Amino acid sequence: MLAMNYRGPYRVRASHKAEPQIEHPNDAIVRVTRSCICGSDLHLYHGLVPDTRVGTTFGHEFTGIVEEVGPSVRNVKRGDHVLVPFNIFCGSCFFCQKELYGNCHNTNPSATAVGAIYGYSHTAGGYDGGQAEYVRVPMADVGPTVIPSDIDLDDAVLLTDAFPTGYQAAEMGGIQQGDTVVVFGAGPVGIFAAKSAWWMGAGRVIVVDHVEYRLEFVKNFANCEVINFKEVGDMAIHIKRMTDWLGADVCIDAVGCEAAGNAMQHLTGVVLPLQAGSATALHWCINSVRKGGTVSIVGVYGPTFNAVPIGNALNKGLTLRMNQASVKRHLPRLIEHIQAGRVKPGEVITHRIPLEDIGDAYHIFSSKLDNCIKPVLVMPT
Ligand code: NAD
Ligand code: ZN
């Protein structure tokens, strides 16, 4: 089969790989029908995630048709069209029982913190992902969800990660009626966080980025205010000026670590080495939120950051919340939002690129070329 093949930072290509096999009675093999590239994949692509091994296949946002199931799988069968949450989870451990599926204890024996994720380095379990014609889906009884017949595939594939992650970002903000919510990052995750914030009672939603076409998109999609951070001086002062000098009630980090070419570089003029990344958005969150406010972090951080203003956070009495999204927990509610016509997540898809051109797909998405917001890979026919 054709599959994405990681060769090192900024080097990915499609190459032929053996098709995955059932390795455990709980496995399914899924033929991929939609597979996205995520901002999280860019952290891998930029070489920012530890233990990302050459030869592995990324991809944790996919839908597909079940081709084969192991002998103990009961909840899905050959021919089912499923969406597969990015978390690989057992459904029964201490954490899964609390619906903390992103923190499953059984599927990633190599880590104490993160659960397992498809195609997300050996730090997250070393499973191959779905940027391929076929993928092995472990614990197939708990993750994969049959796509309701009235949900189209473009909407379904956004339910595997970006939409629930944005939703959870807003949820972790603990938004109260009338709150001002500032979302840093106008990628798919930030876009869905902004949209979701209204459902939770926000009175004002402001999204910050520097990519003009993304700000334009989110302004329409989520009916929010936008700030291009290149056009403001001190971010915290700017937000305070907009909020009677109190600061925002809730700030959301939907950026995470970024390689060189990011906001820190823009602000300081210093070109950062690849491994340095930046936690600019996190700084801005902590400094722009009001005293007693909440910072909700879903942006992913590969490297360790020592420069987070934790003293400020303490002095302001902030609540910091963060996690990998627990995708499956949100599905019933988010499917309802789609069915009620309140959101059409598939609208964030801007590009359909053949799997064999995966190198171009990563380059376009990483460099924000051609107004790219969300690329979907087209499988060979
Ligand atoms: P993306 O790369 O498409 O979007 C990130 C956006 O942030 C870009 O538009 C970029 O221009 C903007 N940006 C960069 N620096 C900024 C700054 N200082 N302030 C404001 N905006 C800034 O990524 P995405 O797919 O939207 O994902 C966003 C983040 O969420 C990533 O870190 C990703 O790894 C993470 N993520 C987390 C989870 C989870 O479960 N916690 C799931 C999916 C994605
Ligand atoms: Zn993702």
Automatic annotation (TrEMBL):
Residues 188-266 form the Alcohol dehydrogenase-like C-terminal domain. It comes from the Bacteria. SUPFAM superfamilies: GroES-like, NAD(P)-binding Rossmann-fold domains. It comes from Ramlibacter lithotrophicus. This is Glutathione-dependent formaldehyde dehydrogenase. Residues 25-143 form the Alcohol dehydrogenase-like N-terminal domain. Its cofactor is Zn(2+). Keywords: Metal-binding, Oxidoreductase, Zinc. Belongs to the zinc-containing alcohol dehydrogenase family. GO terms for molecular function: oxidoreductase activity; zinc ion binding. The keyword rRNA processing does not apply.
